[in-house]
Every structure is written in C-alpha cells, then in structure tokens.
Amino acid sequence: MTGSRQQDLIRRTTPLTEASFYILISLAEPLHGYGVMQKVMELSRNRVQLGPGTLYGALTNLMSQGLIEAVDGAGGERKKLYQLTEDGRLVAEHEVRRMEELSRHGHMLLGI
Amino acid sequence: METRKESEWIFKVVWAWQDEREEKWLEEQAAQGWHLEKVAPFFYKFLQGTPSRVIYRMDYKRTTDQDYAEYRDIFTLCGWELVAEMANWHYYRISPENSETPEIYSNDHSKAQKYRRLLIGLVPVMVIFTTIFNPALSRGLLNARNQGDAWVYQAAIAFRVVIFLLLVYVIIRILVKIRRLESGKKE
C-alpha cells in the first residue's frame, strides 16, 4: 500500500466514534452483529452500550468504507459474520496510536 | 374465564419530523394501559391491558433493502419487539429492566443517519406527487380548461402547490434535525 493511499484512507475514516472504534477492534476475530454488541459491553464493562440502530448503522458504514467485510460462516450459517479487513486493521492501529499520544500528553501536562 | 380485550382506533396527525413526540405519546398511552397494536396512516390501534412502563422507539428502514433480514435480526436479538410497520417506519418497543431508558441509537451520529435514510425515502414520494398532481398530464383537467371551467384547473394547480410546499417544509424540518444532530461533538 502506498503512503498517500494510506493517508487518504485515514483522513477519510478517522476520527472514529467510540462506538465504531470498539466495533472495529472487536472484529479482530469474526463475529455476528449480536456478538459484537456483547463483546463491546464485556470489554467496556457495560460503559459503551450499543443500541441496535447504532450497531447496525456502524456495521453498514464500516463495511462501505471497506474497514470490515462479511465472511461466510462455517456450516452455512444464516447470520452474517463480520471481520476486520487489512484497511480496517490499519485504521484501528492508527487510532490506537493517536489515542496513546493524547493520553501521554494528558499525563505529561496534568502531572498524573 | 376468557378476558375480552378492548381495542380502539385513534386518529392523530403526526408529521415525519415529530417521531420523538410520537414515541412519547405511545409511552403515555402504555402507562394508561393502552398498548399499540397496529399503525395505519394517521390511525393507531391500541389494545387495553395492564398499565406499564414501556419504551417505544421508531426507526426508518426500507423493507426492500437487501440487508433487511440482518437489520431485523439485530433488533430482535437486542430485545426490541417490532410492534408495527407503516411506510418503512418501524415501531419498536421494549420493557426496561431497570430505571435506565434503553435506546436504539447510542449516539447522535448514528441517529442522524436514520433521518438521512428518511430523506432518501421521501424522494420517490416527491416524484410521485409532482407527476400525479401535474395538471398538464391530466386530460380531464386540460379539457376543463379548454371548455371554460378554468376554476377546476386553477384549483388543481393550487392543490399541487400546497402539497409541494408541505413536502418542502417536511424536508427542511428533517434537514434541521440532521444538522442539529451532526453539529454535536462525536461522542
């Protein structure tokens, strides 16, 4: 992937909303829509609650941006399984680094 | 003994941008024991039951969309019951487990998308109205004009203008709503 394409992708898709970020990192392994919701609640200890409308909308968006993709489930399952694409991983990693920087600066200036 | 359930139809004018007011109204009805059963344009059918705290939320989604089944699944799995569907408006309800109010949208960003879908849904309505009510396309009206019944023709034009302005107003109200939701900070 060329550098300018990467930059373009990141400019187009970030900053992610908190909901989208959590959905993205949950999909490091393939999950159903409902599985994503459970995983996000578990990770954030119920702090980040995803309503079905938000979850559905975020999945659709992330899909159209090419950050996640639908994969065929084992045994021809009816429900769609989603997983992170290469682009999705790139964007998620970029967001993690960005937030690390935010956090580092916060610690530095607030002396905590 | 079989209990006979009372039901009633209520007429109420609610416009497309007033969905939050409509949700609140449905919740008030439920608190009084009247639970939504069916929805028709401007008409609501309620069944009488136990007064209870029920949360109603409306969502706009085209039933002909390819991913409609997936969309429905997610709502069902999250515990939201689809009570009625009318012109792509979905009426969901849930009985909350605690004092918190469950929401189908957890942030303004995704809520704005609902109104964006609604705007796209209004495009065919706009096209249909402007063609069907186009007096130039109606032979009967053109005859009326030629035979001197000019007022029939003028009334048709006036009617068309009113409908058109109404649609424009609805679209402006929805755009304002989208703008307000999207101007908020993300998260």
Tell me about this structure.
The complex is a heterodimer of chains A (112) and B (187). Chain A is mainly alpha-helical and 112 residues long. Chain A has five helices and three strands; from the N terminus they run ααβααββα. A three-stranded antiparallel sheet of chain A has the order 1-3-2. In chain A, helix 1 (3-13) packs across helix 5 (86-110). The longest helix of chain A is centred in the last third of the chain and has 25 residues, at 86-110. Chain A is globular, with a radius of gyration of 15 Å. In chain A, 29% of the residues are buried. The mean pLDDT of chain A is 89. By secondary structure, chain B is an alpha+beta fold. Chain B folds into two domains: 7-94, no CATH class; 108-183. Chain B is built from five helices and six strands, in the order βαβββαββααα. A three-stranded antiparallel sheet of chain B has the order 1-3-2. Chain B has a three-stranded antiparallel sheet with strand order 4-6-5. In chain B, a hairpin with a 2-residue loop joins strand 2 and strand 3 (43-48). In chain B, helix 3 (108-132) runs antiparallel to helix 5 (150-183) and helix 4 (139-146) crosses helix 5. Chain B is elongated and about 70 Å long. Chain B starts with 6 loop residues before the first strand and ends with a helix. Classes of the chains: A mainly alpha (112), B alpha+beta (187). At the A-B interface, helix 3 and helix 4 of A face helix 2 and helix 3 of B.
